[in-house]
Amino acid sequence: MILDTQKLTQRIKQLALHEGFMSCGVSKAGFLEEEAPKLEKWLNQGMHGEMAYMANHFDKRLDPTKLVEGAKSVISLTYNYYPDQNFAEESNYKIAKYAYGKDYHYIIKPKLKTILNTLIEEVGDIEARVFVDSAPVHERAWAAKSGLGWVGKNSLLINPKTGSFYFLAEIIVDIELDYDGPMRDYCGTCSKCMDACPTDAIPEPYVVDGSKCISYLTIELKDQIPSEFQGKMENWIFGCDICQDVCPWNRFSKPHQEVNFHANEMLQGMKKNEWEDLTEELFQEVFKGSAVKRTKFLGLKRNVNFAK
């Protein structure tokens, strides 16, 4: 049984690397005092659009002890998804890089459970839960507190060595660990993400108006896309990578080693006319097990028609 907090923390980080995670950091669980007023203001300004779930469980989003009883530590992890090929051609319709392969939820969650099960074997019975973008966890805030990066002007977690093309995940546990500290913000005077956004979804540094974000418009929004965005989508039909593509720190992004994230051949070969003529049958075939299934067939057709 490992009881030494330093050794136990090192062991957790070792397990994370073994499971293919890019980085792992730990922070002390507690109420996110600094984040509370920012989140409240963002919600009051309606920047979450129709994402009602962002307003639900406000207290849980800010306090991990309401997700795991007696929580003492938040273990934050990053998992690389940067592809070795970029299929976002200017002349074709585009989908976000994270959606090229299999849905990340099904790839990452079992890895978290493996780490947790090993931890239980070595430490004994503990209260814990694993999360991959599936519960009201303020992921970026915890990752920043754990020293995995800083929250950039585009609201994404940025690391000076690896950029921002990675998924975030958490394990919340009721055991004391050796805590990491935050790193400084290296955005400086750069405003490339703000300047490049075609829908002006970053009205001020560190604030993203979700209701104007192309990712929101093409995935979360279930109604018709407002006409004010006509001609501004730049051919994005599922998600958007613009604010990441222009970020200088992403020149340090390295291709992932996850076989499940490789794009299938059918997706790689899709031409503009094939997107426009997409049938439900082909949609089911091309995007089997993919995050793109979130839009459903009619949602993707809506996006293609709007981007024409």
TrEMBL record:
Binding locations of [4Fe-4S] cluster 1: 187, 190, 193, 247
Q: What is an example of a Pfam family matching this protein?
A: Fer4_16
Residues in the active site?
133
Q: What is this protein called?
A: Epoxyqueuosine reductase
> Quaternary arrangement and interactors, per the entry?
Monomer.
* Keyword terms of this UniProt record: 4Fe-4S, Cobalamin, Cobalt, Cytoplasm, Iron, Iron-sulfur, Metal-binding, Oxidoreductase, Queuosine biosynthesis, tRNA processing
Tree of life domain: Bacteria
Q: Report residues binding tRNA.
A: 222
Gene3D superfamilies linked to this entry: 3.30.70.20
Instruction: Detail which positions bind [4Fe-4S] cluster 2.
Output: 197, 213, 240, 243
Tell me the compartments it is located in. Answer: Cytoplasm
Q: What is its main location?
A: cytoplasm
Q: Which gene encodes it?
A: queG
- What does the record give under GO molecular function? epoxyqueuosine reductase activity
Residues that, per the record, bind cob(II)alamin: 61, 133, 154, 157, 168, 215, 240-241
Taxonomic source organism: Reichenbachiella agarivorans
| Details of cofactor binding | Binds 2 [4Fe-4S] clusters per monomer.
Q: Which family does it belong to?
A: Belongs to the QueG family.
Q: Which residue intervals define the domain 4Fe-4S ferredoxin-type in the entry?
A: 175-207
Q: Does the keyword Metal-binding apply?
A: yes
Q: Which InterPro entries match?
A: 4Fe4S_Fe-S-bd (IPR017896), 4Fe4S_Fe_S_CS (IPR017900), QueG (IPR004453), QueG_DUF1730 (IPR013542)
Its pathway, per UniProt, is: tRNA modification; tRNA-queuosine biosynthesis
Q: Which reaction does it catalyse?
A: epoxyqueuosine(34) in tRNA + AH2 = queuosine(34) in tRNA + A + H2O
EC number(s) of the enzyme? 1.17.99.6
Which coenzymes or cofactors are required? Answer: cob(II)alamin; [4Fe-4S] cluster
